[in-house]
Amino acid sequence: MTQSLIIYAASKTIGLGHACRANNFVTNSLENIPELTFHVFDYNEFYSPLSDSIFKWDRDIVRIIHFSSFLDFVEKVKNYDFIIVDLPQIEYPELEVVLNETNAVTVAIDDITSRRLLVDMNFYPPVPWIKDMDWDSSRGERYIGYEYYPLNSRIDEYFRESDYTKRVAIVFGGTDPYDLTIRFIKSFLMQNVTIEFDMIIGPFVKLPKNLPENLTIHASLPQEELFEVFSKSCMAVCAYGVTVFELIRLQVPAIVVTTASDHVDSFYSMDLGKEYIAVDNEQFDTQIVSVVEEGFRVNSVKTKRTRPKRKFKYAEKIFGQKR
């Protein structure tokens, strides 16, 4: 029996994107390779009630809730065949000890820190500038493309070619650390906008007391229901992260709010076309209403969406790897 460890982090400031990717990764891998077993190292400030709402596996997977540091885990990593790391772009020196001590096949997901040079395999979305980074001391392989980004494999079941509505989906993540939800609502309360919105909020998102009548709130939706809202929408507004790649997969046009410099670089380097527009967080309050209105004017006219053909390949690439 192959035993694997996946390490992720989540918090109010980090958000839940890494947790969702970890969930997608484990679920999709088990669907394709049933003989796998996973331990999940939940390195974060959230505990089981929230984690249980994200991770809903049918299998008997042992999840390690919390350790005070990665060093507590060094001895245990020797028992694993595969170690997958999905962490924010923060250096964790203790984790480098883990990656150097283990004989497991090591993998990093969308990582631009020095960890990428220590692992056997790196997986990235189709961001061209990744190739231009310094890889001279890297000991591993790189896989870049939509097919290597851990989305829920069931997302394709919700693809709609043309039968979508003239509604706009709004989602700023499970924790919304930049308070984009409140800022969006306040911006539109001051305007006479008739667009119908579906706003999806996570468990740590706060709402103002007064809400526009044309705004429908959906709280803490399961992924499948989230995909249903996305696919029925003529466009979406979201923060840069996992949601962007879900919308691209469903071919839903989007206005994407960038909150970090690497988000800006990644967004523009992907050359997504006129259907995807970036708004910087610093210009959000002054630009969001006009950008949404123009986006709606263009995207509310129905066009035929093209079903994606790429199959997800990260599970077979990783677990076909032999030492």
Per CATH, what is the topology of the largest domain? Rossmann fold
Helix content: 25-40%
Number of domains: 2
Instruction: Indicate the overall shape.
Output: globular
Q: Note the run of SSEs as H and E.
A: EHEHEEHEEEEHEEHEHEHEHH
Q: What does the main sheet amount to? A: 7 strands, parallel
Tally of contiguous helical segments: 9
Mind explaining what this structure looks like?
- With 323 residues, the chain is of the alpha/beta class.
- The protein folds into two domains: 2-151 and 311-319, Rossmann fold, CATH 3.40.50.11190; 160-299, Glycogen Phosphorylase B (Rossmann fold), CATH 3.40.50.2000.
- The protein has nine helices and 13 strands.
- Strand 8, helix 4 (180-189) and strand 9 (196-201) form a beta-alpha-beta unit.
- The longest helix is centred in the N-terminal third of the chain and has 16 residues, at 17-32.
- It is globular.
- It starts with a strand and ends with a helix.
Q: Which key phrases capture this entry?
A:
323 residues; alpha/beta; Rossmann fold; 2 domains; seven-stranded parallel sheet; six-stranded parallel sheet; 13 strands
Question: How is this fold's topology laid out?
Answer:
Layout: E1 2-8, H1 17-32, E2 36-42, H2 48-54, E3 62-64, E4 82-86, H3 93-101, E5 105-109, E6 121-124, E7 141-144, E8 167-171, H4 180-189, E9 196-201, E10 215-219, H5 223-232, E11 235-239, H6 242-250, E12 254-258, H7 261-269, E13 276-280, H8 284-299, H9 314-319
Parallel strand pairs: 1-2, 1-4, 2-3, 4-5, 5-6, 6-7, 8-9, 8-11, 9-10, 11-12, 12-13
